[in-house]
Design a protein that fits this description.
By secondary structure, the protein is an alpha/beta fold. The strands form 2 sheets. Strands 2-1-3-4-5 form a 5-stranded parallel β-sheet, sandwiched between helices. A 5-stranded mixed β-sheet has the order 7-8-6-9-10, sandwiched between helices. α3 links the parallel β3 and β4. The longest helix is centred in the middle third of the chain and has 25 residues. The structure holds 3'-deoxy-guanosine-5'-triphosphate (GH3) and magnesium ion (MG) (3 copies).
């Protein structure tokens, strides 16, 4: 797996400390700086660094207050924080860990120990990210899995509750896939599922467009900021794109190629929208698309 450059935010009111820490760590990661607590909060939110080296005693906001703010914000709560401070006593050290710090280093620090501890934490962070990615990817098709879908739907639906915006949620189901497996074998069925996943990944490339495998031969698509007119275009593109893959399906009753049916809802902004209702509606419309002859969408 390709290693991505990690980012460390160094927070210290003392310029000489910032400079020394940068010199020690610039080989391990990209370094950014904050010289007070206020700036630390802003830069943490803006850059989402992997790790923060956080001074405690600063003229404006203390490092303890900074970490408290970061741990209480969904966006920044998972950033690892190492305190690096002159408060060299057990009570402050315990407080640092209780507030969510992952390490506590006394000043004056020993350069080789700082490097060793930071490298160990960077490795742990790298591993955690990798596990997090694996936990959210469907192993067969490479698209997102059901677990990730639940998270994304929850967030996207929450986001449109009080904002004037639309959201397209679609459930896509392969037509006569049981016959495909029966005719060509389960292995070929797996290959076809992968091809459908790949086709969907190629269509949806905007950063917030989302594709997941929902269950066996069903996929879910979530497109933020999508009104009814764009939805119509998108949905006919999907149905067409799968047909254009020309995956032979001689056992299908609708087409000599593999096709899909789609049920979709454009969700309007409203305080009462709920994920379960949206999925139920999309599923009913999928059922209708099947009944109307398959190889089509129903909106
Ligand atoms: P319809 O057009 O009404 O959707 O018919 P269908 O045959 O696609 O629907 P049904 O729900 O009866 O069959 C779904 C099939 O999908 C059955 C199952 O064997 C197959 N399937 C589910 N998951 C996998 C998988 O991971 N690999 C393979 N090869 N097949 C799968
Ligand atoms: Mg200080
Ligand atoms: Mg199905
Ligand atoms: Mg099916």
């Amino acid at each position: 797996m390709k290693t991505v450059e990690q980012i460390i935010l160094i927070v210290d009111d003392d310029k000489a400390n910032r400079k020394m820490l940068k010199e020690l760590l610039q080989e391990q990661a990209k370094i950014i700086f904050a010289k007070n607590g206020k700036q630390a909060k802003e830069l943490a939110k803006k850059h989402l660094p992997d790790l923060i080296l956080l001074d405690v005693v600063m003229p404006d906001i203390s490092g303890f207050e900074v970490i408290d703010t970061l741990k209480n914000n969904d966006k920044t709560m998972n950033i690892s924080v190492i305190f690096i401070t002159g408060l060299a006593n057990d009570d402050d050290e315990e407080r640092g860990f209780n507030l969510g710090g992952c390490d506590y280093i006394y000043k004056p620090f020993k350069p080789n120990i700082v490097i060793a501890r930071v490298m160990m934490h960077l490795e742990l962070i790298r591993q955690r990210k990798m596990l997090d990615e694996i936990a959210h990817i469907d192993a067969l098709t490479g698209v997102n899995n059901r677990r990730k879908m639940d998270l994304v739907l929850k967030n996207e639906v929450a986001a449109i509750k009080y904002k004037h915006s639309n959201l397209l949620v679609a459930i896509l189901d392969i037509d006569y896939f049981k016959q495909y497996n029966d005719g060509y074998g389960h292995g070929a069925g797996d290959v076809a599922l992968r091809q459908v996943g790949q086709a969907l990944r190629e269509i949806f490339v905007r950063p917030r467009d989302f594709v997941a495998r929902y269950g066996g031969e069903e996929f879910v698509i979530v497109l933020p900021d999508c009104d009814k007119a764009s939805a119509t275009i998108m949905l006919s593109n999907i149905v067409q794109a799968i047909q254009d893959k020309k995956i032979k399906h001689q056992y299908s009753s609708v087409s000599p190629q593999l096709t899909v049916s789609v049920g979709a809802v454009v969700v309007q902004s409203s305080p009462s929208v709920a994920v379960a209702d949206i999925m139920k509606k999309a599923d009913d419309l999928l059922y209708q698309a099947k009944n109307d002859g398959r190889n089509q969408y129903c909106l």
